[in-house]
Design a protein that fits this description.
Two copies of one chain form a homodimer. By secondary structure, chain A is an alpha/beta fold. In chain A, about 35% of the residues lie in helices and about 25% in strands. Chain A is globular. Chain A binds a DNA duplex through strand 4.
Chain lengths: ~270, ~270
DNA sequence: AGCTCTTATGAATCATTGA
DNA sequence: GTCAATGATTCATAAGAGC
């Protein structure tokens, strides 16, 4: 059993990860504080400083991640003064120089995006999810994220709300397995690199909760039961809740004690 | 009437555009030969050489584009040796340095993408469409690309909810706001920056034809009737056909005489 | 079951003003 | 100039209740 396991730690992941065992993590799933967003919550990282702020931390990610592990990064640049920021591109290229292999970019297409109308752009309805690895060969379990084809299933599963999951869990006790079993013999298909998910509804006491279906997808895709999932910017705890529900171990880190409290509370209440 | 108008020209756009009038083009829509793709057709541009190959040509684009014009670039990096190439990111950043303003990235989500299965990734079902301009203010006609709205609007408008009324009262302070009034009779909605278009079916005698819906969308969005649309890598002629169908002028350029023949044939047959 | 109606809400962006 | 803060403006959808 790893030293730090199934806990939420308050602190900067830069220092906290120093104490975590080398090559002990199977998957890192995270959504860092975006540059110029969450200024009140995180103090704000200027877009020009974002890459240099991130790199020392991603170096620690390299340290604790197993050779066959994956690093999933959810991020999206904003628009300022009529132009899109370029720091996300700069970050990806810097991560490649740091030793990461950029395997894929998934698109998280948000069904319900924020309102607004502007003279020069439409509403932003997608975010990027980058997949990095340490090696060309890595663990991937594609069968565990197969989606059913056909209308009846599409409408049932296009949105995996926490509530749906809870219902399935309580009925069967093991999350997805029952559903998967039900679909055997029906038309199943592999997903593509575009994910259609609604943003989470419901108050999570955190300004930027991503839908649980997002970590859920990548945890099932890149880990097996009992593996360790790390989120170095745990926020409201969604990644940890998802890992726990799927029978994985979790390690959550956040610099704000307030966030850690929210995450711990959600883990206790399993929601 | 511009000198070069409603024609397809065989040649390298680098030299051809030298003869085109300064600031005469309202919109550039193109899908360049991707690096390492279409090697037989174009002789192949190595990923490492792609940016330096492109930049002299995009400089000519700056020359012929009107100050209020837009440049729409459809491109997607491939995967090699298990990793995504970075030349698209490098190109975007180089274009910014060249003077272009990066306004937006649209995601063209391909409904019916190519089948296939690989050990380390799923099927690639999106392409990038970058929107660049010369100025912060540019021509944009958002109303011309509105899409049909769902049924929900009708019922809502029949009987304005108490909450809608309250929200607008507090916002405006005088009973009915004009916001709600704007919705009455509206059955169309603005799109987002994720476009759901099917890929073209049917052989167009060209290996990388994009669906006509793609240039159609951007031509309607960024030009009005009679404007001039340029595609410096016209390929099978889709951009020109779309422009003609929408009552715009077109100028198509391709280095391969074979492509120009196909484009001319399609224009004549209007398909 | 299916239909109608109600409610909730999401990492937004731009123009303007003032320091 | 440049930068920061503030206010104005703005949709489309899912899910649930009720009939």
């Amino acid at each position: 059993m790893p030293k730090y396991c199934n806990i939420i730690i308050t602190g900067d992941c830069l220092s906290v990860l120093q104490k975590v065992d080398l090559s002990s993590v199977d998957l890192i799933v995270t959504s860092p504080p975006y540059a110029e967003k969450r200024i009140k919550a995180y103090g704000g990282i200027h877009p020009d400083k974002f890459v240099e702020w991130f790199l020392p931390r991603s170096e620690k990610f390299l340290r604790v991640l197993k050779p066959t592990g994956s690093f999933i990064l959810n991020i999206k640049e904003g628009a300022h003064n009529g132009q899109r920021q370029t720091y996300v591109m700069k970050l990806v290229m810097a991560l490649c120089r740091q030793g990461w292999l950029w395997v894929e970019e998934y698109i998280w297409c948000k069904k319900n995006c924020a309102p607004g109308k502007w003279p020069n752009r439409f509403r932003d309805s997608f975010e990027r999810v980058y997949h990095f690895t340490k090696q060309k060969k890595f663990s991937m379990y594609q069968e565990s994220v197969m989606v059913p084809m056909g209308d009846w299933a599409k409408s049932r599963l296009k949105n995996l709300s926490a509530r749906d999951r809870r219902r399935d869990d309580s009925a069967v006790g093991s999350g997805f397995s029952k559903n998967i079993a039900n679909w055997v013999g029906r038309d199943m298909a592999y997903p593509t690199n575009v994910l259609h998910l609604a943003t989470e509804c419901g108050n999570k006491d955190h300004p930027a909760a991503f839908p649980i279906a997002l970590p859920d997808f990548f945890i099932r895709l890149f880990t097996k039961t009992g593996d360790l999932v790390l989120d170095p910017f745990i926020g409201s705890g969604t990644t940890a809740v998802s890992a726990k529900q799927l029978g994985r171990k979790y390690l959550g880190i956040d610099i704000l004690a307030k966030n850690c409290l929210v995450a711990k509370k959600r883990l206790k209440e399993d929601r």
